[in-house]
Write a structure and sequence with these properties.
It is a single chain. It is built from 15 helices and 22 strands. The chain is an alpha/beta fold and 577 residues long. It has 3 domains: 130 residues, GMP Synthetase, Chain A, domain 3 (2-Layer Sandwich), CATH 3.30.300; 225 residues, Distorted Sandwich (Spo0b-associated Gtp-binding Protein, Chain: A); 170 residues, Rossmann fold (3-Layer(aba) Sandwich). The strands form 5 sheets. Strands 14-15-13-16-17-18 form a 6-stranded mixed β-sheet, with helices on both faces. Strands 1-22-21-20-19 form a 5-stranded mixed β-sheet, sandwiched between helices. The chain has a 5-stranded mixed β-sheet with strand order 7-5-12-9-10. Strand 21 and strand 22 form a beta hairpin. Bound molecules: guanosine-5'-triphosphate and magnesium ion. Guanosine-5'-triphosphate binds next to helix 7. The site of magnesium ion has 5 residues, from helix 7. This is G5115 protein.
């Protein structure tokens, strides 16, 4: 019978790296049983971090197209350090999911208000411990190494106190604490506390770079909802857990499982009852400022508002949330004039207040243009009830078209009570708009905020794969690239990841499992040869035809020596008495 003498390289995260190390193997003398090359951890920062380049020279400062940002990154040694990055707009564009050209010159506030990218890392599990009870008058006290604690998980919590994603501009990295290592005298490590990330209701959280069809991780709509983003790693078992009738002095322990790690993109869809829409400078922000407590920026140039403002209006002991959507231009549905950004916000509003600029030379044209943009973006938008605010009637030239506009609107299916002439500046007629909007809202069927995506929304930690599923695996060969065999299976991959190769017994146990799960048998049947590379999950091993336990031990020892890892024990430790 052959045995996969194994080795220990780990962290093969993609085939590119796999191929590199595979080439390395093939050049090495066959007499070595264990691979030496890839026992190298990839630093997490290198795995899936957005493609950002490091800042080098000052000349970058002069470049206007460069956005500056500060981030915490892990360097090679694992220590955190603060570095500055710049994001070239081109990079950003290609990395962005919708990548619309319109985003290119977005002011920074817009980008970060309803979109954010964050790094999430759940805590790793703590290591299990190998220890033996040593006490006076207690000979052969037995194994007493405790288990490592579980790593903390990362959750998203919908918090109604928030209404934007701006806080994610200040903090990008979210790490839950690790579980601590187990100790002697059967002391278990402590669990890492869970980390809650507070997001405003209406936030959708996806894996960054997730394919189109993949479900978002979470969509929180109601305040208080708590959804799992990343599960913490299980703590490794200590040697006390491996005690059996046959082996009452086991010298092995597991390492903790790694906590899930990901880059996530957050998207906020505003949850406003009423959206205020209209062409630029129609007076939308002015209207919001008089009907609510909001203090939006108001000025007599188009695109004063770049970020949708929310305002809460209290009338007759009822609160209504109004959103002042930035001005829409012709072509907004195609992303022109930041159109996509703004139209997205209108989707969740139940009622629209359409502000018409009474001083415009063509108010009907303006009105129709906006309606067309709404329809082209999403036909459901023009089905939403609309209240018209014909604005700026305090100005003399606003009267020119007022009757014509009214006639047109009434002919267009709007009711008399839906059309209001107002002056946002003096406040004339504004109350009528608010009352009507509230009335329309009340007439609508009451519905709880609904999810717009089929998000996973895991409310509990996932079920662990049980060890019994270890024989559920598939083997594929990639012989063109230096004879590599891929063994895929959740349970076996996890088992490999948690094996602490520093202990000889752990290596031996791993070999036994490969045998009993039938993996060795299948590999042989498929024609594996001496020196081939076998990849299980993120662990890389090298196949040896030499089946003896002696060869395995020699190989393990060779690897320890080369790596200079701590000598935790030997085949005959603790000494048999
Ligand atoms: N006289 C008069 N001026 C008004 C009225 N409403 C708004 N304005 C003026 O119109 C200009 C534009 O107003 P905003 O409220 O900033 O317009 P907006 O629709 O929010 O514009 P954007 O945010 O650029 O899309 C400002 O100078 C306001 O003072 C009104 O009822 N009467
Ligand atoms: Mg405005």
């Amino acid at each position: 019978m052959e045995r996969l003498a194994g080795n220990f390289a780990n962290s093969v995260r993609n085939t590119h790296i796999l191929r590199r190390s595979a080439r390395h193997h093939s050049g090495r003398p066959k007499s070595l049983v264990l691979s030496q090359s890839a026992h190298r951890r990839l630093s997490p920062a290198r795995i899936a971090a957005p493609e950002r380049e490091e800042v080098d020279t000052e000349e970058r400062l002069e470049d206007e197209e460069v956005e500056w940002d500060t981030q915490w990154v892990n360097d090679e040694t694992g220590a955190s350090q603060e570095v500055e990055w710049f994001v070239e707009d081109d990079d950003k564009e290609s990395a962005d999911e919708d990548g619309a050209a319109s985003r290119k010159r977005l002011p920074a506030e817009v980008r970060c208000f309803d979109n954010a990218q964050i790094y999430i890392k759940a805590g790793d599990g703590g290591k299990g411990c190998v220890a033996f009870r040593r006490e006076k008058h207690v000979p052969r006290g037995g194994p007493s190494g405790g288990n490592g604690g579980n790593g903390g998980a990362v959750w998203a919590v919908a918090d109604e106190a928030l209404n934007s994603l701006t806080s994610f501009r200040k903090q990008l990295h979210y790490r839950a604490p690790l579980g601590t290592a187990g100790g002697g005298s059967n002391r278990h490590g402590s669990n890492g506390a869970d980390l809650d990330i507070h997001v405003p209701p209406g936030t959708i959280i996806r894996r960054r770079d997730s394919p189109e069809h993949e479900k978002p991780l979470a969509e929180v709509v109601t305040a208080g909802t708590r959804v799992l983003l990343a599960a913490g790693g299980r703590g490794g078992r200590g040697n006390a857990s491996f005690k059996t009738g046959r082996n009452n002095a086991p010298t092995l322990a597991e390492v903790g499982e790694e906590g899930t790690e990901l880059w996530a993109s957050l998207e906020l869809k505003l949850v406003a009852d009423v959206g205020i829409i209209g062409i630029p400078s129609a007076g939308k922000s002015t209207l919001l400022s008089v009907l609510s407590n909001a203090k939006p920026k108001i000025a007599d140039y188009p695109f004063t508002t770049l970020v949708p403002n929310l305002g809460v209006c209290e009338l007759d002991y009822r609160t209504t949330v109004f959103a002042d959507i930035p001005g829409l231009l012709e072509g907004a549905h195609a992303g022109i004039g930041l159109g996509h950004e703004f139209l997205r916000h209108t989707q969740r509003c139940k009622v629209l207040v359409h502000v018409i600029d009474g001083t415009s030379p063509d108010p009907i044209g303006d009105y129709n243009a906006i309606r067309t943009e709404l329809e082209l973006f999403n036909p459901a938008l023009i089905e939403k009830p609309e209240v018209i605010a014909y604005n700026k009637i305090d100005l003399p030239d606003s009267g020119d078209y007022i009757d014509e506009v009214r006639k047109f609107l009434l002919g267009n299916g709007l009711a008399e009570e839906d059309v209001h002439a107002i002056s946002a500046v003096t406040g004339q007629g504004v109350l009528g708009v608010v009352r009507r909007a509230r009335q329309v809202l009340d007439q609508l069927p009451q519905e709880a905020p609904r999810q717009t995506t089929d998000a996973l929304n895991m409310m509990e930690l996932p079920r662990r794969v049980s060890a019994a599923e270890i024989d559920d695996f598939t083997i594929t060969a990639d012989l063109a690239n230096g004879r590599v065999w891929l063994v895929e299976g959740e349970a076996i991959a996890r088992f490999a990841a948690m094996t602490n190769w520093d202990y000889y017994e752990a290596t031996l146990r791993f070999q036994k499992v490969l045998d009993s799960a039938g993996i060795n048998k299948q590999l042989r049947a498929k024609g594996i040869r001496q020196g081939d590379t076998v990849v299980i999950g993120e662990t890389e091993l090298q196949w040896s035809d030499d089946q003896s336990e002696g060869a395995l031990y020699a190989a393990w020892r060779e690897e320890k020596k080369r790596k200079g890892t701590a000598w935790h024990g030997s085949r005959s430790w603790p000494h048999a008495v």
